[in-house]
Design goal:
heterotetramer; A: 325 residues; alpha/beta; Rossmann fold; 2 domains; five-stranded mixed beta sheet; B: 331 residues; five-stranded parallel beta sheet; binds thiamine diphosphate; binds magnesium ion
Chain lengths: 325, 331, 325, 331
């Protein structure tokens, strides 16, 4: 049991991977000399050298594609795209090559690649630097999408992601890097199942990434009102672990999905759809969504806060489901 | 090796010569204050300072006409100011106030102003280049006689957007003035580690584009290069690319620990500082006295004080207006 | 009343726009000399010249961005991206500039741009040439997304799209270009509402683009079984005209959403979520989705057919809802 | 102006000289048959013929070693065949049969073969270049001594992917042999209307990459250029770019009405056809008789007949296996 930050947990995982497997290398903008935009890879260049901790030019399309090629060539690349906002420039390689290659080649060529990127808003970085597009990636067959929301997952998800024979995308919410928590030993290293972060029988709150803590805060407030909320952390955004949240909703008969993405076409819509498809007759009320307002993220703090999901909005949504307003 | 500090006579009438100095001081003082305000938490988000590079925006924008278009990056406070955006509106924007030039929606990286055809403030590296090509295409098709100045850092040269935009602009002979601010680093990445060809003019020339190189620490060199280039672009000679060799004195952003360069290098470049070397030249030429310099500096600080007061007194956009301006009227 | 093809309808609309507004021009790969990949713009270069029917190099990111800039500069560009598959290379400009600019600039800069692209599968073009990513675009605030599924909409949607002060994306399903039908005069030119294409009271089938005809075929077969299906064509994918399909479902109490996109995170998920959020208590059964299988589109015809939504699958889904299997 | 047809002595031992001819004939006959089968509806989707350009793949791939990597485009039937993919497997793939080299999943544009390190068949223009850089990076890091040959058309040069990949390969001195097949058109777009700089070697040179230009209709010129380039790449000299000047005799794809070029131009280029000009040279040199030519041609047609029979007899992937190979084992 050690107390470390999410950032340190990610760094430890990277260091372990670099130490244990000579095929592993880290590549991306400013991962080396600069120490990583979020200081995640700080110190790794000094320890592993510029071949294995490789700074790239500003060329998202090419270095992500090069990561795919290196994976095909026998390496186990970890490509950092800095933030999801810039990953739009690399989407063609991720979708049209990485995701399709194995199936399209009749099973001959797999792409054991890990792509890391920061995601999300909350630091007043405004419209172009605050996207949450996890749902886009979670839509694509052929890739796995992970969203570590805890220090333990930040530490534990990389190894199984690297062991996976297919492309895995790791979304690190920018608000979590400074999160500090106890790291259990041994820590779980699972990339298949969702996790129940809090038990409750009255309503199921389903969240992931940066919204998990907001759901937990909402659950605390609801407890004061005598409402026992179960909180589920999706953890794996593709393929979704439907059983875990459907089982919970069957028991609580109510669900609120919390998602930092824009509401329309959000991952929350997919979760909601699956709940309805599989637990319709167990529902006491229509499942609800708490998502971001459908506007580009504004710079001004009060506007950004108003645009994002907040514990109070989650509490209100639950009250609505419980017929308390 | 770092070249000798800019020197030599300033070939301008006193009034214009002093205006260049005053403008550099206005940018410098505004940004020094911004950094301070960032420390106090009055300004948030990302803040990219232009300190050390003022000669580039000052000399280059001085070569534009009021009707021309300007496209900049996230390091654009100086460009906005010299384009004519009121310091009050810039400061209010960084405060996130409704009186800001983007109603507080954009912040430091997204300054916009329709009145001065300042198309912003783009936080995607290389994102402004296609836009500039398009603005120029519109001007060509409408025969407006306008040109579009597009500023970007040397780091953007590695992006596909640079390649595709240069080719489009050259192929269609669009009136774009590509202003590359080569400050040697893209965040922590030195140009040697991002470009196989570090001669950026050679790179740009491969598109069949006219190129120029100028000492970005020398406002005179910058202005002369920009003037000639702007003329050739305006005359229909097709796009022009200028590499301004400059240096960033401060960190990339307020989050940058600057592990990638040593203080000595920064200090060496400071000896080439655009403001003190230029004022020294003006003095030796007898165009400027120390008192006059102090006067200009005081005026700049006065303007900054006024801008801060304006921003402080600014109002917040009501939360109910969050979705305002998402769609245009009649949409 | 004239009988023309979807392709001819699009061409007439383009020609009309070029004739009526000097600010309008068409730009894209092979729209000129080649005559358009799908022959939509055939003849326009000869009539309007290379300035206004402008062939571009293979540079999706730059010419879409140039379209945005040209719109800012006072023109009314129509940019053709050939197919949605290649639009991934231009997504950064569409999302980070076109969609955000007006809001991010405090209302100062709008982008009156129309982007056309072919979408969808069905011609054995395999994994990289068969995407249906309308749902990604429909997720983004600041843009409108249209899916003309009829000859009338192919003819009528362009003018209002050009009149719109903001970016509008037109998805033309590649299977529809040869569709022939009567064009009513006057034809509707609406880009705000969904359309009821067939009336029925037993179940609501909701589709768009290439799936509309499949839903209509399914409705015919269902009629033989005595099931009266209402068929709704979404037409506008963003903003969704929720009222139209919710009103229908309130009446039929059952809904099946048909979508060529991959099931997880599909636009169908959003439609389903809205039905549940707004008509939960009117539902007699959980709404169902008929989407594409979650695999890269295979080349072999029998595999492609198996991967796509088909009338038979829609009929089965409806039978399921009606408790008839 | 169209250059004179390739001529001059063939500097190779008879066996190798004839193999080059035989290989060009194999591609030609295979594709002529494919076009026929497309007409019959046996092959569907897109079909991009290489007819007229055979000398490029033949001469260039002949310069590779078995352990090298090959990355191609959607116009890759010939590359796959000469890389060693059985014609049976290629034809079966175009038939969409399980015996195809991609189990019928890929079709004409997505031929793959792990055994010969043929990384396919990419239908996104420029999409293969980053991949090639990555394969080369893996080889560099693993010191395999392999090189990666990457084929792409001149149209891809305008894409950002070309720019970013050339820079990465040059910056990191990766063992990539960039083989640009300049057939003067990208679908209907002539190179003059897509490149501001039509001298593609000048363009490539701006990345600090070694460049070569060769007559792509002359298998000897192609082979010599590729051999030297491959050697320098293998020796660690960094990436090399070769422009092969060639021409597509057929339409871009089976859907192309060819409105953008006139028959006369095509006819003129046909006089430079890689097969008849080469066989004529061999004959004048006494390395080939007409009977021997007919023999090679018969053999090629025989191989094609066999491949068609194989494809016809092939089986369909059961629909239940639709999702097979979506994820790797242990995923
Ligand atoms: C497409 C994209 N990739 C990465 C970033 C993160 N980033 C912001 S500024 C910057 C460095 C840009 O350097 P340069 O172009 O030289 O401009 P400078 O900051 O030196 O003025 C990077 C990598 C970004 N904003 N956009
Ligand atoms: C990114 C992308 N844009 C557009 C297309 C459509 N397209 C397919 S082939 C082609 C022309 C490519 O020309 P070139 O690179 O010269 O290769 P060639 O076909 O002449 O061999 C185009 C535009 C595509 N497949 N990918
Ligand atoms: Mg820089
Ligand atoms: Mg070509």
């Amino acid at each position: 049991m050690r107390r470390i930050t999410y950032r340190e947990a990610l760094r430890e995982a990277l260091r372990e991977a670099l130490l244990q497997d000579a095929r592993v290398f880290l590549m991306g903008e400013d991962v080396g000399r600069y120490g990583g935009t979020y200081a995640v890879s700080k110190g790794l260049l000094e320890e592993f050298g510029p071949e294995r901790v490789r700074d790239t030019p500003l060329s998202e399309l090419a270095f992500v594609g090069a990561g795919i090629g290196a994976a095909l060539g026998g390496m186990r690349p970890i490509v950092e795209v800095m933030t999801v906002n810039f990953s739009l420039l690399a989407l063609d390689q991720i979708v049209n090559t990485a995701a399709l290659l194995r199936h399209m080649s009749g099973g001959q060529f797999g792409v054991p690649l890990v792509i890391r990127m920061a995601t999300g808003a909350g630091r007043q970085l405004a419209a172009q630097h605050s996207h949450s597009l996890e749902c886009w990636y979670a839509h694509v067959p052929g890739i796995k999408v992970l969203a570590p929301a805890t220090v333990e997952d930040a530490r534990g998800m990389l190894a199984p992601a690297l062991a996976d024979p297919d492309p895995v995308i790791l979304f690190e919410h920018a608000q979590l890097y400074n999160l500090e928590d106890d790291l259990p030993e041994p820590f779980t290293a699972d990339i298949a199942r969702a996790a129940v972060r809090r038990r409750g029988d009255d309503v199921t709150l389903i969240a992931y990434g940066g919204c998990l803590s907001k759901a937990l805060q909402a659950a605390d407030r609801l407890a004061d009102e005598g409402i026992a909320a179960e909180v589920i952390d999706l953890r794996v955004l593709r393929p979704l672990d439907t059983d875990t949240f459907v089982e919970s909703v069957r028991r609580t008969h109510r669900a609120v999905v919390v998602d930092e993405g824009w509401r329309s076409g959000s991952l929350a819509a997919e979760v909601l759809a699956r709940i309805v498809e599989q637990a319709f007759y167990d529902l006491d009320a229509p499942p609800a969504r708490v998502c971001s307002e459908e506007v580009p993220m504004p710079y001004a703090r009060h506007l950004e806060e108003a645009a994002l999901p907040q514990p109070a909005k989650i509490v209100d949504a639950v009250r609505g489901l419980m017929g308390r307003r | 090796m770092i070249p000798a500090p800019p020197s030599g006579p300033v070939p301008y009438p006193r009034e214009f010569a002093l205006r260049l100095l005053a403008d550099m001081l206005r940018i410098r003082r505004m940004e020094e204050k911004s950094a301070e305000l960032y420390g106090e938490g009055k300004i948030r988000g990302f803040l990219h300072l232009y300190i050390g590079e003022e000669a580039v925006a000052t000399g280059a924008i001085g070569a534009l006409r009021p009707e021309d278009n300007l496209v900049a990056t996230y390091r654009e406070h100086g460009h906005a100011l010299l384009r004519g955006v009121a310091m009050n509106a810039i400061m209010a924007e960084m405060y996130g106030k409704r009186e800001g030039c983007s109603r507080g929606r954009g912040g430091s990286m997204h300054l916009f102003d329709a009145a001065t055809r300042f198309f912003g403030g783009n936080a995607i590296v290389g994102g402004g280049l296609p836009l500039a090509a398009g603005l120029a295409l519109a001007d060509r098709m409408q025969r407006t006689g306008r040109i579009t100045a597009c500023f970007f850092g040397e780091g953007a040269v590695a992006e596909g957007a640079f390649h595709e935009s240069m080719n489009l602009a050259a192929l269609w002979r669009l009136p774009v003035l590509f202003c590359c601010e080569n400050n040697l680093y893209a965040m922590g990445t030195a140009i040697e580690r991002s470009e196989s060809q570090t001669d950026l003019c050679a790179k740009a020339a491969s598109y069949g584009v006219a190129t120029r190189r100028a000492d970005g620490m020398d406002v005179v060199a910058v202005h002369e290069a920009a003037k000639e280039a702007a003329e050739s672009v305006r005359a229909g000679g097709g796009p022009c690319f200028i590499e301004f060799q400059t240096y960033r004195f401060r960190a990339h952003s307020m989050f940058d620990p600057e592990l990638y360069r040593d203080k000595a290098e920064v200090e060496a470049w400071r000896t080439r500082g655009p403001i003190h070397t230029y004022s020294a030249r003006l003095k030796t030429q007898g165009l400027l006295t120390e008192d006059e310099f102090q006067e200009l500096d005081r005026a700049a600080m006065e303007e900054v004080r006024g801008a801060v007061a304006y921003a402080e007194a600014g109002t917040l956009e009501p939360v109910e207006d969050l979705a305002r301006d998402l769609c245009g009227a009649g949409a």
